[in-house]
Amino acid sequence: MDFTEKTISGERIYSGKVINVDVEEVGLPNGKTSKRELVRHPGAVAVIAVTKENNIVMVRQYRKALEKEILEIPAGKMEAGEEPHVTAGRELEEETGYKPLALKKIASFYTAPGFCDELVHLYEADIDKPGRPFTDEDEFVQVEEISLQEAEEAVQQNLIHDAKTMYAVQYLRLRINEQ
Amino acid sequence: MDFTEKTISGERIYSGKVINVDVEEVGLPNGKTSKRELVRHPGAVAVIAVTKENNIVMVRQYRKALEKEILEIPAGKMEAGEEPHVTAGRELEEETGYKPLALKKIASFYTAPGFCDELVHLYEADIDKPGRPFTDEDEFVQVEEISLQEAEEAVQQNLIHDAKTMYAVQYLRLRINEQ
Description:
Two copies of one chain form a homodimer.
Chain A: E1 6-15, E2 20-27, E3 33-40, E4 44-49, E5 56-63, E6 68-72, E7 75-77, H1 84-96, E8 98-110, E9 119-130, E10 141-146, H2 148-156, H3 163-178
Parallel strand pairs in A: 4-9
Antiparallel strand pairs in A: 1-2, 2-3, 4-7, 5-6, 5-10, 8-9
Helix pairs in contact in A: 2-3
Protein name (chains A, B): ADP-ribose pyrophosphatase
Cofactor (chains A, B): Mg(2+)
Pfam families (chains A, B): NUDIX (PF00293)
């Protein structure tokens, strides 16, 4: 059965700095119509970086959407025309000062497919010594390096509380257990 | 250091069926201001259900935001005033016909904390025999039951392609490996 929802009409409700919002009237498989609210996002990257001391490089930052600080793996949105691995290297260095020696793609996932097209590309970076972070002027992050066990505890405490970082912590646990 | 971003002014750009969109002017820690685009979402649940035959209950559905079909674990947004475990039981039964015998909370995660407050509550359900699904009138889903290995292959093929489902697949793999 073909479940495709064809766009009958659409309207751009909002054009922003990070997101655009469209509302579309779609035709359903049963011949009826429905309204879909769609957030358009340029896509993002996230980076798992483990130090020689076996700590995960995290950034603590205030998330206005949540009105609280959380610990996340370094991440950022893709600039127009930028390849994901380039974004990954750039964001890691800007936010943490670590320059990646090598980057390996781990996974890509849509974060909220019910209403948003944001695709996050997850990389693992080989890193050497950290340099000096240089974040964007409207971005305030604090680097924290924690062990995998501390990360798992931070998940329990809702200090790590976002899908990409929780996926990354699980990924590292799986890999260590399989060794 | 206090990274809190205080709201100076805000405007509701869009009030929708699923999401609302706010644009806020915020005060930054350095005294400057910036604009934050914020998508408000009521929150959602997702359910891991494994059959007696050791297959994961998945639903195939067309996602307009992605313009394609993907395989996901059963999920849905919370209705006003609804407790997450109630949503979990309701969505599982509506989408798949399986009535949960018991529900266990596994995790909660923000899907896109950079711009959206959607929090997904992930449950694991004990299930018995399936009944008959009864989805919403604008929702078309097809139930598919696949093994963990098939799910991991579906991840490789980008047929499973969203964070909550990929997190769930990793969760099941971790648990099986730890047995």
